[in-house]
Every structure is written in structure tokens, then in C-alpha cells.
Give the backbone structure.
Amino acid sequence: MLFTSYKFYGFVILLVALYYVLPKKAKWPLLLLGSYVFYYFAGWKFLFYILAVTVITYVSGLLISRNKARAEARIAEMKALDKAGKASSDDKKTAAGSSKTLDVGKEKRKHYKESQKKARRRIMGIGITLALLILAVVKYTNFTIYNINGILSAFHAPKRINFLTIALPMGISFYTFQAVGYVIDVYRDRHEAQKNFFKYALFVSFFPQLVQGPISRYGDLSKELFTPHAFSGRVVGRGLERVIWGYFKKLVIADRIFPAVNTMIDTPENYKGMFVFCVMMFYALELYADFTGGIDITIGIAEMLGIPVKENFERPFFSKNIAEYWRRWHITMGTWFTDYIFYPISVSGPMLKLGKWSRNHLPEHAGKRLPVYVASFVVWFTTGIWHGASWNFIVWGLGNFVVIMFSQELEPLYAKFHKKVNTDGSTAYKCFQVGRTILLMSALRLFDCYRDVPLTFKMFGTMFTTWNWNLLRGNALLGLGIGRADYIILALGTLLMFIVSMFGRSGSVRDKLEKKLPMPLRWGLFTILLLIILVFGAYGLGYDASQFIYNQF
């Protein structure tokens, strides 16, 4: 059931209507039922995967929570017994003996506490391993076979391993990471384990974010997810505004430019030189409009139900460097990798030993930075392979790591340059930084486009070896599956996105419109936007919108 299908429109309208009609106790069960119905239409067999991840992480969280409760009760009991033993002493000698007993009791409590913490860590480790194992089997089995066959081929082995037919369940990377984060947070005492299995199942399967995120935290989402919300025309209206804006970006911009990008990628031998630059820029526009449009739809639907969901983007193409870009792009994914991979690795025993060794054996700067770069390398490798089970995604992830690492190492030179040239506050230099970031990120995204590492490097090189930039003055771009009218619509749509982003720098655009415009005029604007989608959206008779790009992850 795609976000862009009539079936989905009807599903959402019916669900929102029932949500506000049903009594309070039936609201969250309705959301659970609706989420599983939504997932059923993605493929009924996939229900087993999401149910398995839900059961594993639910039981893990419950066992961790119960162990902690038992341990705290036992420690309190041990303390009480030690105090009772001290109070019953009759003379100084006995009291001195009791003090020794109390010291022994303190050591026992400490040992018991540590043993129970290790037990909880084992439970967490088993639960996370089992959940990630499901993800690994369905997503990385054939990638592993591919690499094994490559090794066998290198050694001229006669046999090869056959690939398996495994369908990738929709959104499995998103809901698995969300569930794993829940278990870790229970272990870290950030919140109590959810005792109601069905409520926890709703947290994992909440349907708007199943397609492409965001990756929510239990402590954030659960506060409103299980709370029955009364109908509010303002809340539903604001959510609908966000949904309409999302569909505008998806249907008018992303799906309209999709044929041109696809044409150039499918036959790369025919589209070299300046066409590769066009792929870079067109795909950057497509991906941004597609992904942010989908997130707008997700957040808008949740908002129509009175449930706030974390923002996932903050005008990333206004970033002045790649590190800033990743703080603004797919925010919930970035914070997930930081909190659950980067920080744990940074404070782990092996990393602390590496830090101590590097400070003693390497130059001062390198000694301090090495542990940070090792942890960052792991994060970016994981980020790459999370996006897709192929080497192009891994190289893409590591490419981000290399650029960020070099940028950080060159910061002293940048500081000297800025001081000498005096670029502080310069609008022109800020525009240069933004343009540089867009070009760097778009160039790295070529690995996503061509899906082949050697081919990507080859095509990137043709921008400098195949000099056909003169074709931009002709009709070459009209042979990519879209015409002049399409380019005009794309230009105007992109300009509108830019204007909205500019207005959004100092706060929500919807809040500003709500304060400055009366409701009839505001809804008139969104009605016009809806008509633009209906008239200029890239769809038609028998049209089935291309799936959101991040569905594959």
C-alpha cells in the first residue's frame, strides 16, 4: 500500500475518522490494528518478521526490567540485614565485629550488583543479536554469498554458492533499529520496559513511519502514542497541510524528474561528461524532494492523529560543510548511530586501551584523534551498509568519513585562511560554502545512482575527460524522457521549495501563516497547492507512483 496510492488515501481517511469516533480505550488498539493492516498489504509474509523483532525485543526489555527490580529489592534487603546486625551489638567488641561484618556485607552487595548488571547486559546482548540477526539474514545473505563467490573466483575454485530468493520486508531496517534502541534504553534506565505487549507492538509498527522513518525513540513517541486524543479541527487541519506539502514535493518534483535520472543511469555509456553532472544535480533534487516529501506525509498523518513525531530534516542544503549537513539530514538516523554506536565504541575497553597506546606512541595530535577516527570509521561503515547491502553504499559511507576527517584535520589551515582573507560574515563566502557542500554531497551520491563502484569512478572522471558541455545549449536534455513543460514545472517547484525553506529558517512556516493569515485565506493557499498537485503531478491513468527511494532500506 504505497503512500501515493488511492488505497492508502482511503485507508488514512477511514482510520482518522474512526480514531476520533471510537471511545478513548479503543483508540490505541485501532492504531495497532491499522498498522498491521497497512503492513499486511505490503506482503502478509512480512508480518512474521516484524512480529519476531517485536517479540524478541519486548521479552528482552521485560527481562532486563524485572532483573533490575529484583536486584534493587535484594540489595535493599541486604542493607536492612546489615543494619539490623549492627544495631543488635551489645558491647564495643561486638560492635567492632559488626562493623567488619558490615564491610563484608557492603562488598557482597557490590559484587551482587555487578553480577546482576552483567546479567542484564547479557540479556540485552542476546536480544539485540537476535533482532539484528533477522535483519542480517534477509538483507545481507546474498551480499555475503556474492563476496564469497568473488573470493572463490579469485582462487579459481570450480564451485559457486547459489543466491537465495529472499524478499526484503518493507522498512525492516527502520523498525529493527527502533526496537534495538528501545532495548538499549531500557538497559540504560532511560525508561521502564513496556509491560503491555500490544502497546509495545504499536510502538514498533506505527504505520506512518514504517516506510522510511523517522527512527523514533520510545521515550519520545510513547508519551503521545498511547494517549487518547480528542478531535481538534486545528490539529487535523495542520497535519493535512503538512501532508499536502509532502505530496507536492513527491509528485510534482521527485516523480517528475525521475524519468530523466533513470534514463541517464540505465544507459551510462550514452550519457557521459556533462550528463554525469546533470545526474548529480537531478538526483540530489529527486532524493531531497522524495525523502523529505515522504517524511512530511509521515509527520502530517501522525499530527492528524494528535501524535507528534520527531523532525527528520532541517534545511540540509543550507549547510556549510558535510558534518553540518549530516546534523540536518536524516536527523533521527544520525543521532541513533551517534548514541548507540559511536559513544559506546568510544568508551569501550578496547578503545580506551587504543587511546592510551596512541597517546604514548604517536604524535600528540594523532594520539588524541586516532580513537575518535576509529569510532567514526565504524559508524560510517555501518551507515553505508545500513543503506544497502552492496559495496557502492559502503564506499559512499566511507567517502563521507574521509571528507569529514580531512575537513577536521584542515581546520587550522581554514582558520588561518579566514583570518588572513577576513571572510567572517561574508555572504558570498557563505554561499560558496553552501554550494561546495551541495556539490560534494551530490558527487558522493553518484555511488547511489550507478550502484557500481568502478563505474561510478569512471563516470565521474568523464566530467573532466569528455568535453560535451556545449550540449547544454541544445536540446540534449529534452531527450531524457521529460519535455520543456516538465523543466518549467521543476524550476518553479524547486523555487517554491527554496522560498519555503528560506521562510522556515526562523521558525515553522505553518505557524507564521497561521499568525498572519486568516483561516479561509490560509486554506485557500493549500487548496491551490492541492490543485497544482492534481494538475501538474506526475501521474495519470494507470499510473503507479514510483516507490519512495528510502523504501529499499
Summary: Residues 92-154 form the longest helix (63 residues). The CA atoms of residues 55 and 197 lie 8 Å apart. The chain has two domains: 44-205, 234-552.
